[in-house]
Amino acid sequence: xxxxxxxxxxxxxxxxxxxxxxxxxxxxxxxxxxxxxxxxxxxxxxxxxxxxxxxxxxxxxxxxxxxxxxxxxxxxxxxxxxxxxxxxxxxxxxxxxxxxxxxxxxxxxxxxxxxxxxxxxxxxxxxxxxxxxxxxxxxxxxxxxxxxxxxxxxxxxxxxxxxxxxxxxxxxxxxxxxxxxxxxxxxxxxxxxxxxxxxxxxxxxxxxxxxxxxxxxxxxxxxxxxxxxxxxxxxxxxxxxxxxxxxxxxxxxxxxxxxxxxxxxxxxxxxxxxxxxxxx
Length: 280
What we know:
seven-stranded antiparallel β-sheet; 6 helices; alpha/beta; single chain
């Protein structure tokens, strides 16, 4: 028996923009390609990866010379004004033959000229622009959070536009006939998408419009939920996610261990604020 350590489930990929598409008022899809992208795989569902973007004026993202296991500490030691912009994103779709990776970017702050560097980059990205991805090369890679336990009778999913790619991946992955109650909150009626699924999914689209409060909370509170053992996946704005989790546990009696919850963003905080909290 060999004592060699198993190969790491992630690998670095130097990629470039193939094309961009405005898929809805709130989302820009950037399709990436590269010579070695055929090695990238996905565990489906809410598969995440690390995306590294160049700073304004750079031709390519600036990364540490050593991209081994200590890359993160080396990246932190780099000058923040020079080092690559790092973000976590969800695989919207990974195709082979040809090898292409679709990434959807929410357009935060477009109207006022602000927003984070990732959404700004996506609006101006052109074919040939270079990025780097730290992506999975094994289906079991630790980057999938949607994990219904054995004995689950039905699933509950809530998302906003930031978590829409993940919700789409979950719906596409669910086995045929799986009962699912799904609420997806978006800004504009034209953000509604046709999501492919073989699950027995009841999908409700909620249009936020100019309202500041999240309509998802009231919708879930008012819902008549199915009987049986549930599993919940709730993602989006952090405050909304916390409120929904409290409701499901305190009012609906969900087992805390049967809820996966992720704050993709926080109202009043920029992408850089959140990153500073994580890396500070």
